[in-house]
C-alpha cells in the first residue's frame, strides 16, 4: 500500500460539490483536512473485518467491494464501490469492522481520519448533512440488493446487477458508446448474486444469446439496454442520482 500527501483540489470537496454548490468557507474547511492518497492492487484487502479502523475512504479510481468470508472458502459480496463512493462512511477506533473492504481492481483512494472529519461536520453542519445523504443512498442500494438476491430469478438477478453497475459507471463518465471497462469476473458476480460460478456463466451466455450484451476480456458492451433493464426489472430511482437524464443520456431515455 502506497501513500502520499494530496496537494490539489480536495477529493471530498470535489465529491460533495457534485451534489450541491459548496461555499468558499466549506471548501476551505475541507481543504484543511489532512488527506492521503492510497494505491492498492487488485485483490488486496484495504480494510479487514475484526480490526478497528478510524479511516474514512473515498474511491477515486477502480472498483472495490465490501464482503464477508464464510466457512468453506465462500464469500458474499454486499456492495461494489465505484469512483466517488465512500465505502465506510464512519468508523471509530473502538469499533471493530464487520466487513472486509477488498480491491476488485487496482484502486486509488483518498484517506482521512474519521475523528477529524467528524470535527469538520460539527463546525460546518452542511458537510455532515451531505455525508448523511450519501449514507442514505448506500442504504437504499443495499435494500435493493436484498430484493435482488432474495426474489429475482437468476437471469433477472444478474441483469439487474449489470444495469445498476452500468448506470453508476455512466454517472461518473466511465461509459462510452454503450461500453465500459468491466474488471469484475464471473467469480465476483457469483459472490454478489448468490449464484454459483457455473450458473453465472450460463446466465452470461443466455444474455449474449438474447442479444443483450457482450461480456468478455474485461469489457462490457451493451446491445439492448431496454431489453436488459426490462429483464432485470430495473428502475434507477433507488440510486438517487442527480440530474439523471442529463448525466445518463441514453440510459435515461431507455428507462424513462
TrEMBL record:
PROSITE patterns on file: HTH_CRP_2
InterPro entries to which the protein is assigned, alphabetical: cNMP-bd_dom, cNMP-bd_dom_sf, HTH_CRP, RmlC-like_jellyroll, WH-like_DNA-bd_sf, WH_DNA-bd_sf
Domain HTH crp-type, first and last residues per copy: 152-226
Keyword hit for Transcription: yes
Keywords: DNA-binding, Transcription, Transcription regulation
Entry keyword Translocase: no
GO molecular function annotations of the record: DNA binding
A GO biological process held by the record: regulation of DNA-templated transcription
Any Pfam family: cNMP_binding
Protein name per the record: Crp/Fnr family transcriptional regulator
Organism: Rubellimicrobium roseum
Amino acid at each position: 500500500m502506497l501513500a502520499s500527501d494530496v496537494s490539489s483540489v480536495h477529493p471530498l470537496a470535489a465529491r460533495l460539490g457534485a451534489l450541491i454548490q459548496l461555499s468558499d468557507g466549506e471548501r476551505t474547511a475541507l481543504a484543511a483536512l489532512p488527506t492521503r492518497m492510497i494505491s492498492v492492487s487488485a485483490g488486496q484487502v484495504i480494510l479487514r473485518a475484526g480490526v478497528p479502523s478510524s479511516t474514512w475512504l473515498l474511491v477515486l479510481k477502480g472498483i472495490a467491494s465490501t464482503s464477508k468470508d464464510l466457512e468453506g472458502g465462500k464469500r458474499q459480496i454486499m456492495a461494489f464501490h465505484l469512483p466517488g463512493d465512500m465505502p465506510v462512511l464512519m468508523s471509530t477506533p473502538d469499533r471493530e469492522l464487520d466487513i472486509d473492504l477488498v480491491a476488485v481492481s487496482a484502486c486509488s483512494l483518498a484517506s482521512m481520519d474519521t475523528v477529524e472529519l467528524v470535527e469538520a461536520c460539527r463546525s460546518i453542519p452542511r458537510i455532515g448533512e451531505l455525508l448523511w445523504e450519501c449514507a442514505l443512498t448506500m442504504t437504499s442500494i443495499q435494500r435493493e440488493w436484498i430484493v435482488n438476491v432474495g426474489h429475482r430469478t437468476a437471469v433477472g438477478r444478474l441483469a439487474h446487477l449489470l444495469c445498476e453497475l452500468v448506470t453508476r459507471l455512466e454517472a461518473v463518465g466511465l461509459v462510452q458508446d454503450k461500453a465500459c471497462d468491466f474488471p469484475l469476473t464471473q467469480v465476483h458476480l457469483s459472490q454478489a448474486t448468490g449464484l454459483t460460478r457455473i450458473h453465472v456463466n450460463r446466465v452470461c451466455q443466455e444474455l449474449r444469446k438474447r442479444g443483450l450484451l457482450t461480456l468478455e476480456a474485461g469489457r462490457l458492451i451493451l446491445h439492448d439496454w431496454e431489453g436488459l433493464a426490462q429483464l432485470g426489472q430495473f428502475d434507477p430511482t433507488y440510486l438517487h442520482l442527480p440530474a439523471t437524464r442529463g448525466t445518463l443520456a441514453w440510459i435515461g431515455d431507455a428507462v424513462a
